[in-house]
């Protein structure tokens, strides 16, 4: 059983390579992603595993999995998208909460465009184009970021008011930014360009 990796694992910061051919290995990676996603969710009663990217299992290939019904935790069907690419974003930039299986116990108010258009391959090799808005658009952009080694916390790194965690009741409460976030090398490995 493959496990979800978490910060500061350096594999989360690598750019993933394109899938050149959909093979049995590709289908196995997708099956592992689904299993890991649902296993993670079992131990997080207040949280939904909305989507997952292959790098979160330490597999640097451009594959993401998105839950078919983002409002229903009992619906365990997901759609795999291979080599997804953002074609266009539009609409007002809105801030909303995001969490990540690979960034434990942290949520953030992340600004993203309201709408996105992407293209990708599905498991049978056909190309699809997806227009999404709202929460689905946010999920797609979040997962495609993973394929480029970007985590949601990178978008809000310097915003002291953007970080939250879940309390014991499943409510989001602000995090002490100065103590827990700023200069946290577990979350933000030292970037040689910024030294």
Write a structural description:
- The chain is of the alpha+beta class.
- It has one domain (10-184): Alpha-Beta Complex (Peptide Deformylase).
- It has helices at residues 24-42, 134-147, 177-181; strands at residues 51-53, 63-67, 78-99, 107-121, 127-133, 163-166, 172-174.
- Strands 1, 2, 3, 4, 5, 6 and 7 form a 7-stranded antiparallel beta sheet that branches.
- β6 (163-166) and β7 form a beta hairpin.
- The chain is globular.
- 29% of the residues are buried.
- The mean pLDDT is 93.
Describe the largest sheet.
7 strands, antiparallel
Shape: globular
The overall number of domains is 1
Uncertain residue ranges: none
- The SSE string, one letter per element, is HEEEEEHEEH
Mean pLDDT over the residues: 93
Strand content: 25-35%
Distance between the termini: 39 Å
Helix and strand topology:
Elements: H1 24-42, E1 51-53, E2 63-67, E3 78-99, E4 107-121, E5 127-133, H2 134-147, E6 163-166, E7 172-174, H3 177-181
Antiparallel strand pairs: 1-2, 2-3, 3-4, 4-5, 4-6, 6-7
List the defining traits of the structure above.
alpha+beta; 3 helices; 7 strands
Gist of the model:
The protein has three helices and seven strands, in the order αβββββαββα. It is an alpha+beta fold.
């Amino acid at each position: 059983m493959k496990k979800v990796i978490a910060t500061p694992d350096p594999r989360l910061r690598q750019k993933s390579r394109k899938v050149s051919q959909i093979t049995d290995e590709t289908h196995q990676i997708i099956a592992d992603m689904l299993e890991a996603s649902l296993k993670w969710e079992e131990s997080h009663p207040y949280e939904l595993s909305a989507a997952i990217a292959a790098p979160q299992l330490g597999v640097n290939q451009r594959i993401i999995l998105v839950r078919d019904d983002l409002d229903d935790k009992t619906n365990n069907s997901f759609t795999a998208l291979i080599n997804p690419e953002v074609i266009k974003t539009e609409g007002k930039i809105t801030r909303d909460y995001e969490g990540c299986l690979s960034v434990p116990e942290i949520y953030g108010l992340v600004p993203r465009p309201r709408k996105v258009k992407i293209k990708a391959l599905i498991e049978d090799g056909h190309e699809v184009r997806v227009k999404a808005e709202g929460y689905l658009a946010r999920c797609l952009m979040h997962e495609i970021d993973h394929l480029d080694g970007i985590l949601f916390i990178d978008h809000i790194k310097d915003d002291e008011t953007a970080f939250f965690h879940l309390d014991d009741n499943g409510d989001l409460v602000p995090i002490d930014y100065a103590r827990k976030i700023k200069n946290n090398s577990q979350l933000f490995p030292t970037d040689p360009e910024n030294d």
